[in-house]
Amino acid sequence: MKIIRDISTIGFGDIIGTGITTIFWFYLASIISPSEFGEIHYIISIASIISYFTLLGTGNTLTVFIAQNKQIATVLLNFSIIFGMIIFIAGIIFDFFHIGFLILGIIIFIYGISRDVAKKEFKKYSFNIILQKGLTAVLAYMGFHFFGIEGVIYGLAISYFVYSRYVIQDITKNNIGYNQIVINLKEIRNNKNFIFTNYFSMVIQQFTTQADKILIVPILGITILGNYSLAGQIIAILIMLPNIIFKFILPNYIDGTVSPRLKRNTILLSFVLVFLGVFVSPIFIDEFFEQYTEVIDMIQIMSFAVIPITINQFYFAKFLSKEDGKTPLFGGIVSSSIMMTGMIILGTLLQEIGIAITYLISYSGLCLFYFLKTKNER
After folding, report:
1. 108 vs 24, 92, 97, CA distance in Å?
2. Cα-flanking dihedrals φ and ψ of residue 213, to 5°?
3. What angle do CA 303, 353, 291 make, to 5 degrees?
4. Which helix (H) or strand (E) holds 184?
5. From CA 205, how far away is CA 197, in angstroms rounded?
6. What are the residue boundaries of the structural domains of the chain, listed by start?
7. Nearest-angstrom CA–CA distance, 231 and 285
8. What is the SS3 assignment for 148?
9. What is the pLDDT of residues 83-132, one digit of tens each?
10. Closest CA to 277 of 233, 238, 229
11. Nearest residue to 20 via CA among 154, 106, 135
């Protein structure tokens, strides 16, 4: 019963929060052209990729270290904030303030949710997620009507700062003097393999997640990116429950308390989600998004990726709980290579269908890699 209660607590925040932002993104897509919708997601993709380069302590690394009560998490946070501030100042100087502002917000956001999950403070997690998503919808909506596309970016960035109190609290609480810096640098050296392999793994994973959007623009144009981004919103809804369960299982993997039954039921659930994506989502698209004529076929193909994405979550949590950063790193390289190659070759040959097939093959290839790696270890 405790498992169900904890998952439900996380799920409540994610479902309500995702519901709020999904309604906003769907509303925005319905009143602007696919090219404008694509431009917004193009900017978000650039900011997301850059933000992960600044996050020396990635979200999953922070979750593991905070769960283990290691002060090294605060040291990694300090580094990330410093790098984020440098980019933010550069944005002011070189006239990309909205991107620099969003990058700093993403860094704060990732630390905040990692902290809540690591400490198993699932009620706080739900409250913060709902607050942040609610602010996203309100502020981005207001920003769009006052400033256009840049206003959406400003609204999204400001919403992430609801977690700034965690950053201030943890940095001020852990007053790091010279002796403590020496100790923490030693801790970084002792954990360097896990930190850096997981860092590069998450950079590659984020690059895989966002590079498709970056590559689509020069190959197929911003309008097709708009269609692809709308399809991505549908997939985000479908994988919401597997993502909720991942947030629950990661700290529990560290404690060694993950149920095999939970794994089996989650994977079975992913088949139901594929059914919804293939047969139900086209009805929704036809009804509300007449401008996005090419998106239905994309969604139906991409929906099948929900199954390997769900399975990958369990593999990923298992590797992280053992502080094994190498396997996710090499898996990310495999997945990223498939994504970039497929976007160029299949995207050029088959247009929208090609990039949808590439999306499916990329996550399926990662799942196969994890399976073969685990089988070899056994």
Report:
1. 22, 19, 17
2. -70, -35
3. 85
4. helix 178-190
5. 12
6. 2-377
7. 10
8. coil
9. 888 888 888 888 888 888 999 998 899 888 888 877 778 788 889 999 99
10. 238
11. 135
Rounded to 5 degrees, what angle do the CA atoms 78, 179, 195 make? 45
Amino acid letter at 325? G
Structure tokens at 115: 């902290």
pLDDT tens for 324-368 read 777 887 888 888 889 889 989 999 899 889 999 999 999 999 999
CA dihedral sign of residues 17, 34, 352, 298: positive
- 201 touches 328 (CB < 8 A): yes
Residue 113 contacts residue 94 (beta carbons within 8 Å) = no
Q: What angle do CA 115, 117, 123 make, to 5 degrees?
A: 105
Helix axis angle for 240-255 and 306-321, nearest 10°, is 20
Give the end-to-end CA distance of the chain in Å, rounded to a whole number.
32
SS3 80: helix
| pLDDT reading at 176 higher than 60 | no
What are the two backbone dihedrals, phi and then psi, of residue 119, each rounded to the nearest 5 degrees?
-85, 0
Q: Shortest CA distance to 268 belongs to which of 294, 245, 296, 299? A: 245
For 188, the token pair is 């970084």
Q: Which two tokens stand for residue 223?
A: 């309008």
Give the Cα separation of 75 and 119 in Å (integer): 18
**Cα–Cα distance measured from residue 322 to residue 29, given in angstroms and rounded to the nearest whole number:** 42
DSSP character string of 189-205: HHTHHHHHHHHHHHHHH
Q: What number of other Cβ atoms are within 10 A of residue 149's Cβ?
A: 17
Helix (H) or strand (E) holding 288: helix 281-288
Could you tell me which of 1, 20, 41 has the C-alpha nearest to residue 152?
Answer: 41
Number of C-beta neighbours around residue 378 at 10 A: 5
Phi and psi, residue 318, nearest 5°: -65, -45
Residues 6+ apart with CB under 8 A from 35: 221, 222, 223, 226
